[in-house]
C-alpha cells in the first residue's frame, strides 16, 4: 500500500502552494475556485491538496501537528533553514536531538496558513 495524498485545510491556499513549490520542489497541477483549492505534486508523485475551510469552519490543527520532510544528512537541513530564513519565513534554529535512540538534526518552520513544517535528518 502506498500513501497517495494529503489534504490540508488552510485559509491561505495560494500562499501555502507558493511555499511548497518555491522551497520544497512541488509543482502546481491545478488551482481552482479563485485560489480555493490547489493540487500540488512532488517529484515522487505524491499529491498534496490544499483547500479553504468550509463556510463557518476554521483551519485549525492540534498542537504538534506538522508535515515532516526527511533528508539524508544534516547539511541539507542547515541549507534549507538558511534558505527559508533568507526568504523571510523565520524558521526555528537547527537542533541536534536524540529520539528513540536515533540522533536527528531538525528545525521547524511555520508556513503560510499556520501549517507547521519540519525538516530533519537522522543517523545512528
UniProtKB/TrEMBL annotation:
Protein name: Mll5167 protein
InterPro entries: Glyas_Bleomycin-R_OHBP_Dase (IPR029068), Glyas_Fos-R_dOase_dom (IPR004360), VOC_core (IPR037523)
Coiled coil regions in record: none
Residue span, VOC domain: 2-122
Domain of life: Bacteria
Pfam families recorded: Glyoxalase
